[in-house]
Design a protein that fits this description.
This protein is of the alpha+beta class. Helix content is 33%, strand content 26%.
Length: 315
């Protein structure tokens, strides 16, 4: 399978290159970002040793669909999607926080609650909640954006006190976050899903706030199946999830949570294939569309050709 582990292109007017955990980002003339969604996969802030075929395409195409579906709420950074695994967009100055919003007590929020925490990022959680319970209202639990290592929880008060974001901008970010989550929730409901929690990243260009990065993908969001949710909660059963959580669970079951001294378990061909199949299943369920496999041509040649042609049209 033709997985994209990494790219090493050199485009005309390229001014910078950055390799993130899962994306390769090329800056063109300090005006555009070419974001290649590789098939690398990360969990617990660690990039796992083997790429997952088609994972990048799945995430890129879901993000593209949802960015279009929310463009009436907030302008976004996208200028072109010239390849299933590539988005080209405008360079923005990113805010140094990620806006995490949670409608249910799951994942990190649940682990904090289970261990006795009742305040998360300044938000007070009621007593007597169970894992995956619906919260009375969605809560915003921001994190700082770490260049390396783990992102850290931070509260609205700390963000403003440290001057990370101005109050006027932060109020706007909160409003956008709530509106985007509401839209994402409505779209998920149409697909028989519950949008449990997600994160948004924002940037500024020419004094205006833009939505940047991917949104509502199974890497940045957690989904439950709506059918049977209430019954499963009532019985204390695990919820049926549509997210990257299944990868985290596989790692946890095999003794890995990204802690010092822990080894990533062996990623056999069968494991890699099963994760790839799950991502494609996620795509089809979230979008309601059949996944289109790319042609068998050399993936590096395809990427370079499609990006080069798109940049010519944008210049």
């Amino acid at each position: 399978m033709n997985a994209i582990k990494e790219t090493n292109f050199n485009f005309e007017n390229q001014t910078a290159f950055y390799r993130g955990k899962v994306r390769d980002v090329y800056t063109i003339a300090n005006e555009y970002l070419v974001m290649v969604a590789s098939d690398r996969i990360s969990a617990f802030d660690v990039v796992l040793p083997k790429p997952i075929p088609y994972k990048g395409q799945v995430l890129n195409q879901i993000a593209s669909k949802f960015l279009k579906a929310t463009a009436d709420i907030i302008p976004n950074w996208v200028a072109a999607v010239p390849d299933p695994s590539v988005t080209i967009g405008h360079t923005c100055e990113p805010f140094k926080v990620e806006m995490v919003i949670r409608g249910y007590l799951s994942g990190h929020a649940w682990r904090t609650y289970r261990d006795g925490g009742r305040i998360l990022c300044g938000e007070v959680l009621a007593e007597g909640l169970k894992e995956n319970d619906k919260l009375p209202e969605p809560i915003i639990t921001p994190t700082t954006k770490a260049a390396v290592g783990h992102d850290e929880d931070i509260s609205r008060t700390e963000i403003l006190a440290q001057g990370i974001v101005s109050e006027a901008d932060y109020v706007q970010l909160e409003n956008y976050t709530k509106q985007l989550f509401q839209r994402g929730t409505e779209i998920a409901k149409e697909r028989g899903l519950i949008l449990v929690d997600t994160k948004y990243e924002f940037g500024k260009k020419d004094g205006k706030i833009y939505l940047i990065d991917e949104i509502h993908t199974p890497d940045s969001s957690r989904y439950f199946y709506a059918d049977g949710y209430a019954e499963r909660q009532e019985k204390g059963e695990e919820q049926k999830q549509l997210s990257k959580e299944f990868v985290r669970q596989w790692l946890i079951e095999n003794g890995f949570q990204g802690k010092d001294g822990q080894q990533v378990p062996e990623m056999t061909h069968e494991i890699v294939q099963s994760i790839s199949e799950r991502y494609i299943e996620l795509y089809e369920h979230i979008t309601g569309e059949k996944f289109q496999y790319p042609t068998d041509e050399d993936v590096q040649v395809r990427l370079q050709t499609n990006i080069t042609n798109a940049l010519k049209l944008l210049s």
